Amino acid sequence: MMKKPRSKKASGTPAPEEVSVEPLKLPRKLLISGSKGGIGKTGCSRIVGVAASLDGLKVALVDTDDQRSLAAWHTLRDESGYETLAKLDCFPMDITTAPEEIGKLTGYDLVVIDTPNAVQAYRDAVIRLIGLADFVLLPTGMTFDDRRSAIPWMGVMKHYGKEAAFVMNRVKRGTVAFRDAKKLLLKEGRLCPVDIPDLEHIHSFADQGLSAVDIDNAKGRDDCIGLWHFVRNEMRL
Fold this sequence. Notes:
This protein has 237 residues and is of the alpha/beta class. It contains eight helices and seven strands. The chain has one domain (28-234): Rossmann fold (3-Layer(aba) Sandwich). Helix content is 37%, strand content 15%. The protein has a seven-stranded parallel sheet with strand order 3-2-4-1-5-6-7, with helices on both faces.
């Protein structure tokens, strides 16, 4: 009995190998927001941005405040001449178009969004930013005025089903005001277990384009890095 001939391989140019295309990795977005001025939104943006970059993440800062304090700080950082500083980019944006512009940012691990004080004046844009965010950080001080602003703003986060946490800023530890404020905030929402103390080193390096995180022996540096660790774990970065 004759054996069937083996089938011949097709001649000609071999078929190209299939190329697997990985889905575009979109950055995680942290919104730092509040409805009152002087609570440390820009300071927290600097702290988190620098600490995240030192941790090996590619970071973009977005400044939507007309005062452009974060962008001005970043310009000083670029012009400082310190070659060993952690690198991060900064994009000044008009808050009314920021949600669309932020959606186009790619190639970053983390986008930190600093917002203006008068959120009520930009209600629609702020609501879109809230929807865009993966996590929201709400800085607040210890005073009645600070809490009176921060607590209702946490209510807005809950209304939109957004993961959020208070972070107490410029605190004087050991005071009755600090303990009372902490208890009241814990009743209303998540509270970052690390607070930022009212220390000169936390703020005094800003005019050089630096943050306390950049200075190894800066007082309060460990607290600043602790804030980043909290954010990193909450955002699963």
